[in-house]
Amino acid sequence: MKHNSNAMSLRKSKLALAVGTTLLLSGNAIAQEEQAENAQAKGKLEVIQVTATKRTESIQDVPMSITAINGDKIEKAGIEDLSEMSGYIPNLTISEGAINTNIYMRGVGSGINRAFEQSVGMFIDGVYMGRGKQFRAPFMDLERAEVLRGPQGVLFGKNTIAGTINLTTAKAEAGGDFEGSVTVDIEPEYASNGITAVLASGLTDELGVRLAVKTSETDGYMENTGTGRDEVGSEEDIVRLSVNWQPTAALDVNLKVEHAEFSATGTTAQIIGLEPLDGLAGFVGGMLAPALDPQFSADKEDYKNSTDQVLSPEKRETDADNVSINIDYALGDGTLTLVTGYSAYESELLQDVDFMPVTFINTNDIEDFSQISQEIRYATSGNNKFDYITGVYYQENELDFNFYSTVDITQINPALMGAFMGIPLQALNPAAPEGLSVVDAGIVPNGFTRSTLFQQDTDSLSAFFQGTYNFSDDFRIIAGGRFTKETKDVTRDSMNATQASTLYSSATPVGPTDAPASPGFNSWFTANALGVAVTTPMGGGSRDEEQFIPSVKFQYDVNNDFMVYGGVEQGFKGGGFNANADSTDESNEFEEEKALGLELGFKADLLDGRARLNAAVFHTSFDDLQVTTWNGFGFEVGNAAESVSQGLELDGSILLTDNLTFSGSFSYLDSYYEDYSNGPCTAVAQSQGESICDLTDESTPFAPEYSASLFLDYVTEIGESMELFAQLNANFKDDFFYDTDLDENLMQEAHTKINARIALANVDGIWEVALIGKNLTDETTFAAGLDVPLVKGGYMGYTDAPRTVAVQGTFRF
């Protein structure tokens, strides 16, 4: 529903109420702090150290909305990857889509065009990862995960327009003790098993090594009634070697070498709705699919899909390599840092994209990517009247991929022949006699394949500076900027693999006395009859972009435990070239995206360190927002005019007793298109002849209005030799759309997922046995979805995991 004037007033009222709630909480927090000023607390909350400002400091001293989870909590909660982690963090959604990874923060993301980089920047050990497949490896031996919200362009660079996710892996330690651990996870219901082993040692006082290995496999939680197997069956293997060298007190060198392999057969995609809107949809979904598989279903609650293996096997494979070298050298009053990164992957994705037992449509994506990067920066100590951080960054990468879609019409031929017989020949040749159909001229249905080769070379160079001037011990201004120059060179060649030279020769009239139409012409005619563009665009070109983005913030310490901050920062996301096979001259190129973010918040430590409360209100406006839309068969890319993301974020913790901790986070989000008159249309609108729909004032996808996460952590001793750990977690997300056309058939309803963990360990921490339950209320939810290609009124969704219960055992030495 569009926002009318009353809705706009309601939006402003909600935001005003959120701000008022924040101020009220602030006042209560200060009052509680004053009441507890002289209290002698027995314990304090953990102080989390983060590197959000390229320096290591307490999260409570960082002037931005940030969530951080240490590696120990990630391991104990059984969080296996970024997608699972996002379920614990309001205003963050990460999920696997049809061809890429969806990453949305505060309702802002890039969608899934193959040429897109992400709107949320991903950094692992200081190295930027712009492609979703660079971080598909499961979580293993992490030190910390940080989620930074809002534009982060000055310190982190381009493509951090919505925020940044900063992962830090556990490092080797020179001179450290010999230690190790083995963790085994067993989930019997879906045969999901995993083993993680870590071995670390300080070989000398100057040299340390750390080896981490993880292997896991699962049969999957989907039942494919078409093939009779469980899906997705997957295997993941990752190995990481870390080395730390400290030859002097001034020099610290960390090397990481990592290799990961991921393979999966099957899919979590299932048909979640089927209301045929044309004859072809009725034949394929209403008649043919049930005939081929009597168990075929569009019930979104049954965890069943039905795909075939005729055109190609359903599989995903990715091999990835990552190398990073981080060098810190104490120089003068600060530290000189060099971060060198190499990242590469090869992947293949084969999908049955009619998502039914019909042999109809499949796609194959083969991708090859590599990048090298170098950052050199210098940061002063942070203890001066004026402190600064400055540096330069260079990156180059190469992206090559080949993707094709095949349409096999063998099984749908009866329906197509009937349609062809109803097309008058005079539509092609006005001189043809009346009463003849195109079939009389030999024009009959024929399958076709679209193939695209896409090659992109990118060079990016930037320089940045951020200074902090301390006007007093309590008040400081932080200002800076980054200049970026980027060049992209792209070649794209899209063609039809079946007699391409004939396929596109459609200008010659045909008549009943002509020779039968060629297979190529029949393919061309079939594709056009199905509404599939089969032109042969030669796309790409060269782009040169230059951008300067500034940032100004303030930070005021009311006292030692209460800090107020605010600021404004610009961000941008680079433009590029459309990778789609049906790209035209008009849609060949998309422009850069710009953002202006404002944020005001406070951070408070209360009750002598036993409690903590942080809050932020934000407003970010986006111009030329890059969007991906679904046209019924393929994804189109372009720029929406304007969008707004605004709201409130709260998080806090309190140590209720020495044994019991309560923590939680809450967000109110209002993310909408301020101007988007050329948006995508729902399947119903497309069936009525509409191709462009006005989404102005409508919500953006992946933008639940309310979301929250609550934790209860309990620990107690059992006897003299053991400890009991228990955690209960509830994650709530409001309604949100998970497709860009905002079709209510592709909307995830509000839901709450309950997770729990109970563990028994000896007091020395040598062993631990835990029971981990996820989604205990067995909520059925979907990570992403879209309209079924060529089957108007068919809807599919990628199904999240149902309830799982696993046993986890850890032995440390």
Characteristic terms for this protein:
single chain, 813 residues, mainly beta, Maltoporin, Chain A, 22-stranded antiparallel β-barrel, 5-stranded mixed β-sheet, 11% helix, 52% strand, disordered N terminus
In short, what is this structure?
It contains 9 helices and 42 strands. It has 813 residues and is mainly β.
Account of the protein in words:
This protein has 813 residues and is mostly beta strands. It has one domain (5-409, 446-812): Maltoporin, Chain A. It is 11% helix and 52% strand. It contains nine helices and 42 strands. The protein has a 22-stranded antiparallel beta barrel.
What topology emerges from the helices and strands here?
Elements: H1 5-35, E1 49-50, E2 57-58, E3 66-70, H2 71-76, H3 82-86, E4 92-96, E5 101-105, E6 108-109, E7 120-124, E8 127-129, E9 142-149, H4 153-156, E10 163-169, E11 179-187, E12 192-202, E13 207-218, E14 222-224, E15 229-231, E16 233-248, E17 251-265, E18 269-274, H5 279-292, E19 304-305, E20 315-331, E21 334-351, E22 361-380, E23 386-407, H6 413-421, E24 448-470, E25 475-496, H7 500-503, H8 519-529, E26 538-559, E27 562-573, E28 576-577, E29 589-590, E30 593-606, E31 611-630, E32 635-655, E33 660-675, H9 683-687, E34 706-718, E35 722-733, E36 736-737, E37 747-748, E38 751-762, E39 767-774, E40 782-787, E41 794-799, E42 804-812
Parallel strand pairs: 7-10, 14-19
Antiparallel strand pairs: 1-2, 3-9, 4-5, 5-6, 7-8, 9-10, 11-12, 11-42, 12-13, 13-16, 14-15, 16-17, 17-20, 18-41, 20-21, 21-22, 22-23, 23-24, 24-25, 25-26, 26-27, 27-30, 28-29, 30-31, 31-32, 32-33, 33-34, 34-35, 35-38, 36-37, 38-39, 39-42, 40-41
